[in-house]
Structures are given as C-alpha cells and as structure tokens.
Amino acid sequence: MLRIHFTAEDFVRIRFTPRPAPLQELHAALTTAVAQRGGPLFAPWRGRVLRSLPTATGPLAELVPAGRPPSFLDVLGDTMADGFEQIRATGPTLVRSELERVYGTMPAPRWVRDLHAGDETAWRTLHRAQQAAYQTVLAPVWSVVQDLHREEFTRYALTVAEHGVAAALTGLAPGSRLHEGVWEWPGAAPDRDVRLNGRGLVLLPTFHHPAGPLLHDTPGRPAVLTYPAGPGLPPTAGRPAVPAEALAAVLGRTRLDALRLLAEPHTTTSLARALHVSNATASSHAAALRSAGMVTTTRTGRSVTHRRTALGTLVAGA
Q1: Residues of the chain falling short of pLDDT 50
Q2: Is 236 domain-assigned?
Q3: Most buried one in 1, 51, 179, 265, CB count within 10 A?
Q4: How open is the CA angle 11-12-14, to the nearest 5 degrees?
Q5: Contact at 8 Å (CB) between 196 and 203?
Q6: Last residue of a domain, one of 88, 117, 138
Q7: Given 3-state DSSP classes, what are the helix, strand and coil percentages for the chain, each rounded to the nearest 5?
Q8: pLDDT, tens digit, 9 for 90 and up, residues 224-256
Q9: Is pTM, for the whole model, over 0.70?
Q10: How far is CA 131 from CA 99, 193, 318, in A?
C-alpha cells in the first residue's frame, strides 16, 4: 500500500499538470512494454513496440537494469527538448549517486561509466536514445495523448469544484481513501509511506502504464505522482472502428448503448434514466456486461456504480 501523508500546507499545494510530459509518458510506455504489464489486452501493442524499437534506443534499457531507473530521468518538461534540458541540468553529485544506486556491484556499460564521469558524448548518447524511442513509440499517437490529458484535466477540475479535493484524489484511484490527512492507495507495491511535509504534490496522468502509481519523491521538491488514466488501453492512431450495426447485432442495441454510456461511471438509476428503461432492466444489462468482463460494479452503502473496463472499451470502439 502507498500512504501519502499531507499537512494542511500540502493540500493547498496540490496541482495537476496542465499538459502531458513527453519524457514521463515515454518512460511509462517503455516500462509497460519491457515489464510486460497490462495483460493480454496490451499484448498486440507491446509486440509492435518491441519489434519496432530501433537499435539507437538500446542505451535506455542499459540505463534501467532490473527495472530501477535513476531518479534524474523523472522530469516534467512540456517538450522533449525541455525534458532533456532538465535532465542535463542535474547536478553531477546526484547523477553519480543515482547511477551507483542503480548498478550497485553490477558491471556498467562503458557509456554509463562515461555518464558517471560527466562525459558530454555519453549525454548525447542518452539524448539520441530518448529521441529515437519517442519517434517510434509516442510521436504517432501524441495528439491522442494530448486529447486524453485535456479530458483528464477537465474531469479533475470539475470534481474539485463540485465535490472538493478529497473526492478528486480518491476518484483518481478507485479503492483509495483519504483519512486523517493520509491518502491510502491499496495494492501499490512496495509498501511505502511518503511524507510531503509542506512540499506539495504534482498529479500527472499516464495513458501507457496500466498498473500504478509511480511516485517520484526527491527531497526538497514537490512529490510527483504519475497515475494510470484513460480507457485502460494504450492510445492508437487510426484503429478501425467496428460498425455499430455489427456490434448491436451481437450485443443488442440497448446493451451496446449501455456499454458506451459506461465510459463514465453510472449508478443503476442514472443508467436506467439514460437508456429510458426500468432500473431492473438496466441492472440486468449491467450484470450481463459484467459477467463478460466488460463492466465493473462497485458498491458504496446502498448504491452501486457501474463503469466500463478496458475490455469493454476495446469492444465498444468509438
């Protein structure tokens, strides 16, 4: 479980990134591909990414042995150039200590040893690797990532305005809770306590990392929480949609409408109202979709809330 401890000062220093961070999204995507996260729904995307990565990206894998990246890679630049400039500005002491932490007693490749020594050629090697990976993995879908980020930003802002910060935070992580100044996120590994102590928290959605959160905690700086968002599938450019008539023939028109409505959470009552059917009929449709793995249902007191899963999103298409 991840436990983030807030002070009153931290609550007024929570901010949501207004734009996606290309390097953070790239690192999340590469982590998902290499670590084989996301299960079978991510398998086609993962295969395409790993097959298409050019040789120039090899240094990125060498910089993250055993899945332990150096912390100086975590930056929030609005562009690739901004991000790399922030990485390059990392003090040499932190660069050396992080590379020593990551490699420990393992032998490091020559270029990593050069990076440890501050060699400019090694920094250019890292820059070329990041650029090559971005062009292969993210550039084709970056406009989609930007659209998804705007939607997530708007959703968060509206939730804060209507229901407050606590509801907005717990809404980012289903099953989490904010209790006595501690945001508890069950299921996050490893078990960890992070005390903000007035530094604040930056929230950054990612659309390529299905199992989160990723927390970057550098002393003296705001903590950065990268959390999984979006439809639960990696963004794609130009994926052909299945015609609505074909889906309706399989699912039935009302059940297909329910599946598409459940891109947003609905109670049984609100789903019934949107479908113009009785509560019992709406509940029956939700149960059928749930049994097929396309919908999840959570209970809060006497109310139940339904929402589409990643499989449901894949089936529903547009």
Answers
A1: none
A2: no
A3: 265
A4: 70
A5: no
A6: 138
A7: 55, 15, 30
A8: 888 888 777 778 765 555 566 767 777 888 888
A9: yes
A10: 21, 34, 31
